[in-house]
């Protein structure tokens, strides 16, 4: 039995935000909604549990803050799955505001500039904002106009898909600008 491993089924972490189900509902009376979505009214918890058991479903507390609390007869596993699906959906839409970064130098050649513009074009097509960062070193600091020309040349290459959201400005040894996709 040395070479074989047993695979364990992952157990979800205990979540304090989960709705109370069946026997965990401790209040004497609740407002009940049945499995079809029809509102039954205010009933005792025992009566609601009996109805849920008869329908082979669970009694789930939907709104604990209401007076009396609102419970619904439904499949609890399906309810949890729908909640997780909504969370994943909201997380996937929230990443669109991220910024992708393209780094340049005053001496970046035309071929490299074309490749970086191609990558920036892909980022913009995906809906990301693109931050341009031009790094100066040593004596390059005395020729900031070359950096400004480089950023203007780069933004001119992406003029059809991007607009300048933040004009180029110096921050220490860096010159930065921000491009956002055109709608």
Please, could you describe this protein's structure?
This protein is an alpha/beta fold and 183 residues long. The chain is 32% helix and 29% strand. It has four helices and eight strands, in the order E-E-H-E-E-H-E-H-E-H-E-E. It is rod-shaped, with a radius of gyration of 29 Å.
| Strand tally | 8
Count of spatially separate domains? 2
Helical/strand content category: alpha/beta
From the spread of the alpha carbons, the general shape counts as: rod-shaped
CATH superfamily of the largest domain: Translation initiation factor 3 (IF-3), C-terminal domain
Could you tell me how far the N terminus lies from the C terminus, measured between alpha carbons in angstroms?
Answer: 61 Å
Sketch the topology as an H/E string, one letter per element. Answer: EEHEEHEHEHEE
Main sheet: strand order:
2-1-4-3
CATH class of the largest domain: Alpha Beta
Average of pLDDT: 86
Briefly note the CATH topology name of the largest domain: Translation Initiation Factor IF3
- What is the CATH architecture annotation of the largest domain? 2-Layer Sandwich
| Radius of gyration, whole Å | 29 Å
Q: Given the structure, what is the number of helices?
A: 4
Helix content: 25-40%
Query: Which spans of ≥5 residues are poorly predicted at pLDDT below 50?
Result: none
Strand content: 25-35%
Largest sheet: 4 strands, mixed
């Amino acid at each position: 039995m040395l070479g074989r491993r047993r695979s364990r089924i992952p157990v979800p972490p205990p979540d304090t935000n989960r709705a109370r189900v069946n026997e965990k509902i401790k209040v004497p009376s609740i407002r009940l909604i049945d499995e079809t979505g029809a509102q039954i009214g205010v009933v005792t918890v025992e009566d609601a549990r009996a109805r849920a058991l008869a329908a082979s479903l669970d009694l789930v507390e939907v709104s604990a803050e209401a007076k009396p609390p609102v419970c619904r007869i439904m499949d609890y596993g399906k309810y949890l799955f729908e909640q997780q699906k909504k969370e994943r959906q909201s997380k996937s839409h929230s990443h669109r505001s991220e910024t992708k970064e393209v780094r340049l130098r005053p001496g970046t050649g035309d071929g490299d500039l074309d490749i970086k513009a191609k990558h920036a074009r892909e980022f913009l097509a995906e809906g990301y904002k693109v931050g341009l960062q031009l790094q100066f070193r040593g004596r390059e600091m005395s020729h900031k106009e070359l950096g400004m020309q480089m950023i203007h040349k780069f933004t001119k290459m992406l003029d059809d898909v991007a607009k300048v959201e933040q004009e180029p400005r110096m921050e220490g040894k860096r010159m930065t600008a921000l491009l956002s996709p055109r709608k």
